[in-house]
Amino acid sequence: MTITTYRGEKNIDLLAKRIFGDGLKDHPEWKDQLLRENPQLADIKSVTTGTPIVVPVDAVPIADEDPSGQLANNRLLDALDVLEVKETAKLAAREAALNQTATLAASPELTAAAGKDPALAGRIAEIAADAKLSLTQVAKDRKALQETLASARAAAAAAPPPSPPRRRPVGKVAANGTP
Question: Are 167 and 110 in contact (CB under 8 A)?
């Protein structure tokens, strides 16, 4: 099964064109299959960006039907969208856990207990400092993720279409004498 994501296309025709590229011209039924597999697309205005879209198995065009390489480029962009959603969620979960740790370390109950035990106070201070340092790293990781994704998307957008494979005409003999 192939999955893509919704990127805010205004209507089903634009979404189908992005997913199937030029292959849609020869296979207009693919748009109907897309709607059958994804009933939420009937009201496309209510679909949120990043929503997974199932691409019907028998509607995936072969490479010869997309000589411009646009389909491959779209799949790369879809994979970047999925990566962004997953990694952003991981960073948000990590950040939430670190914030909770910092809040707990500064809580009045823990501060009172630490006041009675110097070793505990030292350990709580270490934990709080580690949480603060880790929060700084989460911010750096988030920035690095966004920069990497932006760079990859820009490279994908600027990539020239692949050239068609070169084939020797039938019946011709190569310079080395092989047919």
Answer: no
